[in-house]
């Protein structure tokens, strides 16, 4: 397969296994590029990309920006958290204004699920969903799978547990779709109040005991507790959450095998994971950050190759 089956990256649920394979093979190439002394390639010299962030996100925005600049694209950054959107401008107005500046691709994070799909129907640019509400975050799931493939050789047949706030997590949903597409087994683990009612319909195992989940898995992806998305209290206290679902060195050492530990970041150290675990040999958290740039370069490059000139 030499090109993606989709024109936009709106969610993992629209991809085929071959798309993921193509993205990873392309990312392998770019990973080699970003480890060279000169980290730039002229691939997208005549492409203009707008980063539209209607929600704050330092890590994802920087990762995309770096990916775009490594490909030599022209980059326009638009932080809607501090813009005319506050003055009542609509999504379409904002985007049309940006498109009138002749933008080829839009990378967007938005609090409303489906914002990217809506946009792709109304504007003539390639859309990359950088997170829509608690719905999907496709590039995070791709870089997570890519990091597992790098550490364990392949994703197929691996057992992955996603631990924590599944209810508010777009990372969890995209990861479930991506891992299943590649033939991995998925389990979710967390307090009952943070597990969505529909979760078993997605074909995942459910476990509320962290130790049991860890004994089952090859890979543990520890999610951040998203206090900013919670209007009500889903568990009594952070301390209680940590006692039941926090990953400590003692727990890791008690397992009769070595597991791979991941975290999408930013880490609440001492809440979902202790520092000595986050900084251990088994954790691939910094690899995820590095791989994020290579995977986003691959996605942008492959979508840009479908732009009609």
Word description of this protein:
GO terms for molecular function: amino acid binding; aspartate carbamoyltransferase activity. By secondary structure, the chain is α/β, with parallel strands linked by helices. Helix content is 39%, strand content 15%. The chain has helices at 17-34, 58-70, 91-99, 115-122, 138-152, 170-181, 210-216, 238-245, 249-254, 275-278, 285-304; strands spanning 48-53, 74-79, 105-110, 126-132, 159-163, 185-189, 205-207, 219-222, 260-262. The strands form two sheets. The protein has a five-stranded parallel β-sheet, sandwiched between helices. A four-stranded parallel β-sheet has the order 2-1-3-4, with helices on both faces. Helix 1 (17-34) packs across helix 11, helix 5 (138-152) crosses helix 6 (170-181) and helix 5 (138-152) crosses helix 11. 45% of the residues are buried. The mean pLDDT is 92.
Helical content band: 25-40%
- Secondary-structure element sequence? HEHEHEHEHEHEEHEHHEHH
Low-pLDDT windows of residues: none
Number of domains: 2
CATH topology of the largest domain: Rossmann fold
- Average pLDDT, to the nearest integer? 92
Tell me the span between the first and last alpha carbons: 22 Å
Per DSSP, the total helix count is 11
Shape: globular
**Structural classification:** alpha/beta
What's the short story on this structure?
Helix content is 39%, strand content 15%. The protein is an alpha/beta fold and 309 residues long.
């Amino acid at each position: 397969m030499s090109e993606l089956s989709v024109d936009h990256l709106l969610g993992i649920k629209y991809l085929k296994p071959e798309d993921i394979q193509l993205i990873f093979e392309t990312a392998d190439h770019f990973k080699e590029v970003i480890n060279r002394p000169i980290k730039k390639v002229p691939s997208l010299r005549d492409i203009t990309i707008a980063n539209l962030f209607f929600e704050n996100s330092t890590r994802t925005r920087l990762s995309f920006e770096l990916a775009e600049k490594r490909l030599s694209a022209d980059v326009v950054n638009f932080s809607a958290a501090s813009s005319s959107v506050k003055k009542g401008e609509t999504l379409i107005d904002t985007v049309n204004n940006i498109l009138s500046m002749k933008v080829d691709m839009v990378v967007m994070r938005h609090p409303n699920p489906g914002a990217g799909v809506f946009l792709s129907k109304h504007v003539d640019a390639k859309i990359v969903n950088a997170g829509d509400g608690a719905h999907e975050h496709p590039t995070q799931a791709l870089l997570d799978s890519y990091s597992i493939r790098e550490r364990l050789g392949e994703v197929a047949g691996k057992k992955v547990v996603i631990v924590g706030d599944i209810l508010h997590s777009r990372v969890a949903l995209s990861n479930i779709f991506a891992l299943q597409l590649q033939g991995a087994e998925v389990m979710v683990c967390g307090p009952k109040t943070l597990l969505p009612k529909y979760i078993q319909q997605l074909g995942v195992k459910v476990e509320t005991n962290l130790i049991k989940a860890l004994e089952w898995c090859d890979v543990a992806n520890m999610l951040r507790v998203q206090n900013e998305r919670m209007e009500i209290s889903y568990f009594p206290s952070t301390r209680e959450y940590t006692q039941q679902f926090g990953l400590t060195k003692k727990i890791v050492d008690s397992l009769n095998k070595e597991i791979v530990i991941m975290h999408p970041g930013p880490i609440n150290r001492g809440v979902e994971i202790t520092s000595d675990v986050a900084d251990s040999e088994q954790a691939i958290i910094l690899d995820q950050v590095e791989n994020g740039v290579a995977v986003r370069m691959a996605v942008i490059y492959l979508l840009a190759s479908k732009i009609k000139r």
